[in-house]
């Protein structure tokens, strides 16, 4: 309903030639698909959708934390945050490059973002109200990102899998910096502890929803798992995140805002409550608390940067003209 569906006539079922068997065989044997290999059109489109949305998430994801760069509580915290925000920009660049190998241009992808034809992660449409939000983003959002992205280092498309290796290493540093901010606040004054709890209260459910809709409502899960673009379903990764994060919250002395949360001895997992999925769908439709602000900031950056792109093209023309002169 809220999704860019792959049309039935574009599915791999229509690709029955010998190349299709080679492709299917590679997928079965976990041999990576490379840009020059034959691939079904629907596989290419699905990858392009996911990788470009992932790239957009990285560059939009720089904004909420960048909001605190000028107000970080110490020079050390500022340097660490600056490095993290720059890393996110770098992740965007690796991912746009990976997506370009599928036959599209970065300009087209950026246009799709700015014209609201492409999504970016729901999580970045929430505001960062206090310094503790920087801690909560690193701890929870990067924590969730690592759980979602480590399997992507083994996904079937070579350029995406390889880009994810470095991204995951950097995300681990990001998660640690966020947790370190939370440790400092949670062990600080009562006011700092309350600030950390407030950030957890606001970021918990959006982080749980970051993994995407429940499997029963996920339009792409089944096909993407068959193609090994996704190795685990949305719900499986969400459960892993909850299981991994509860002991970390306990160690901080903070309370997860979920009255239904309890350890289930039989399943050896935590049971947890149902997120407000109507909020999730509103956010991905463009009606979250900060959607307009985020896209406005990206549009302004794109327009302000026009002279840089023009200068780079003029320089390229000059180099080419000199070479042929
Ligand atoms: N937000 O059928 P599914 C980060 C859409 S990077 C918005 O389950 P799929 C690092 C989905 O696109 C965070 N839309 O979809 C960082 C589809 O709509 P479409 C980004 C969402 O693709 C940290 C529809 O719902 N990470 O955090 C979301 O199989 C700190 C149906 O859903 C990635 O992109 C959502 N949360 O599974 C940066 C990882 N969830 O496209 C800065 C790679 C679903 O048909 C600071 N992506 N939708 O119109 C993936 O693993 C997958 O794409 C999922 C969604 C799991 C996100």
Q: Which structural class should the secondary elements be placed in? A: mainly alpha
- Spatial arrangement of strands, main beta sheet: 1-2
Largest sheet: 2 strands, antiparallel
Total beta strands: 2
How would you describe the shape?
Answer: globular
N- to C-terminal distance: 56 Å
Radius of gyration: 21 Å
The percent of residues in helical segments reads 55-70%
Strand content: under 5%
Low-confidence stretches: 1-13
Quickly count the helices: 12
Bound small molecules, deduplicated:
Phenylacetyl coenzyme A
N-to-C SSE string, H for helix and E for strand: HHHHHHHHHEEHHH
Mean pLDDT: 95
What does this 3D model show about the protein?
The model is unreliable at 1-13 (pLDDT under 50). Strands 1-2 form a two-stranded antiparallel sheet. The chain is built from 12 helices and 2 strands, in the order αααααααααββααα. Strand 1 (262-264) and strand 2 form a beta hairpin. The chain has 325 residues and is an all-alpha fold. It binds Phenylacetyl coenzyme A. Phenylacetyl coenzyme A binds at residues 2-4, 49-50, 53-54, 57-58, 61, 88, 119, 121-122, 137, 141-142, 145, 148, 210-213, 218-221, 224, 230, 234, 284.
């Amino acid at each position: 309903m809220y999704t860019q569906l792959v049309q039935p006539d574009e599915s791999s079922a229509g690709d029955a030639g010998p190349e299709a068997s080679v492709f299917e065989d590679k997928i079965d044997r976990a041999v990576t698909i490379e840009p020059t290999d034959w691939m079904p059109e629907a596989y290419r489109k699905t990858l392009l959708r996911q990788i470009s949305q992932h790239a957009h998430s990285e560059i939009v994801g720089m904004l909420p934390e960048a909001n605190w760069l000028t107000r970080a509580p110490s020079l050390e915290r500022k340097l660490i945050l600056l490095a993290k925000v720059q890393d996110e920009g770098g992740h965007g660049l690796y991912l746009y490059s990976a997506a370009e190998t599928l036959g599209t241009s970065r300009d087209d992808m950026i246009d799709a973002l700015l014209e609201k034809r492409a999504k970016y992660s729901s999580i970045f449409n929430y505001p960062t109200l206090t310094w503790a939000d920087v801690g909560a983003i690193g701890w929870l959002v990067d924590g969730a990102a690592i759980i979602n992205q480590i399997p992507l280092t083994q996904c079937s498309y070579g350029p995406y899998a390889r880009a994810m290796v470095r991204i995951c290493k950097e995300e681990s540093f990001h998660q640690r910096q966020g947790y370190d901010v939370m440790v400092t606040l949670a062990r600080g004054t009562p006011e700092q502890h309350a600030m950390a709890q407030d950030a957890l209260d606001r970021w918990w459910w959006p982080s749980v929803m970051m993994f995407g809709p429940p499997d029963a409502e996920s339009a792409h899960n089944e096909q993407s798992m068959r193609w090994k673009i996704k190795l685990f379903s949305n719900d499986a990764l969400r459960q892993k995140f909850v299981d991994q994060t509860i002991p970390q919250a306990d160690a901080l002395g903070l309370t997860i805002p979920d009255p239904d949360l309890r350890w289930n001895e039989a399943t050896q997992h935590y049971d947890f409550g149902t997120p407000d999925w109507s909020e999730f769908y509103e956010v991905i439709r463009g009606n979250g608390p900060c959607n307009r602000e985020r896209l406005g900031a990206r549009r302004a950056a794109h327009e302000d940067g026009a002279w840089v792109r023009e200068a780079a093209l003029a320089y390229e023309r000059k180099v080419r003209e000199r070479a042929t002169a």
